[in-house]
Amino acid sequence: MNAKLLERKLEQSGFEPIVAFNGKDAIALAHQHNPDVILLDIVMPEMDGFEVCKQIKESTATEDIPIIFITSKSARDIKIRGLKSGAADYITKPIDLDETLARVNTQLRIRESHRENIELMQRLAESRKQAAVGHVIEGFAHNLNNLLGVVMGYLDLLRASFDNPERLKRSSSQLEIGIKRMVDIVRQLTTIAEFDQIRTSTHNLDVILENAVERFKKENDADAKVSITNLKPDLDFQTNQETLEGVICRLLENAWQSYDRLPAPPEKRTLLINAEVSLNQDQKPILKIEVNDDGAGIPADIRESIFEPFVSTESAVGRGMGLTISRHSIRGLGGDITIEDRSTGGIRAVITLPVNQS
Predict the structure, then answer these.
(1) pLDDT level of residue 190 (50, 70, 90 thresholds)
(2) Strand boundaries in the chain, DSSP class E
(3) Which CATH entry fits the domain spanning 2-95: 3.40.50.2300, 1.10.1040.10, 3.30.200.20, 3.40.50.10860?
(4) Per-residue pLDDT tens for 60-70?
(5) Which one of 131, 266, 309, 350 is most buried, counting C-beta atoms within 10 A?
């Protein structure tokens, strides 16, 4: 009788009620119709309202539906239990139909506001993404145009240097450098386009660290001794080997070049890699890879914008995307990069990654 009265009152107020007389049917109807509000009795056949509420809230398809408990029990602990189980409100029997309508309308307004906020956040995120992409493209175009100017300038020098072998050789060398930087910019742009397509598989941490060091030495022609301390030897985990090796290589390159900015660059440049696995706040394992140096540190004028596109300690045209690419790559793997000053001088670049060994 209560259900019939409530159904009639809701219909007269413009709602479309769907009625279930036990918990199992209530869950099935919730998934089938995805209602805007659920009025749920606590005492029902087969399963009580607390269990129904729990199962509805555990499903991603129905977890956002507000639930108003209907109960004849006015005990404080019953009401608290209902709210803790995920209910948005409660009504005590005997049911006051006008009060029920008022509470239903309140939950509808709250849910509509929630939807509007989600849509607003999505539009804001999309706007920020478009602004960031526009900023990056603008930077790429600016740097490519500058490099094209450099290349054209050296081409003119080449044409005027046929009778001067030394100047011809020097101009050819500078022209090659400019072209390589243009190729590097195009490669970085390709890397950005592939951020959403990173594929992972099982790889060994020792192999990744050793490969990254060798790659750094080869690409920078650096006769460097890099010390590696791996506190989790023989760790196999899910990652993208090429991506992670490339990021570590970039951090080693930045650390190596930071010594050039010292008043008196040392002959031996200390580069240290530390790797360990610890637990985060959710007690889940995370891999932490540190790249340490004793170089010049982060200049004060770029400290707050070190990860922004085309911010660099170098004045050469076509530089300044390394850390931007690195951070986005690591975030594509579910991790992050931070850079901080060391108390002994230099900086510490820290990669954190979730350890998925499945």
Answers:
(1) low
(2) 38-41, 67-71, 89-92, 201-204, 226-230, 236-239, 271-279, 285-293, 336-341, 347-354
(3) 3.40.50.2300
(4) 888 889 999 88
(5) 309
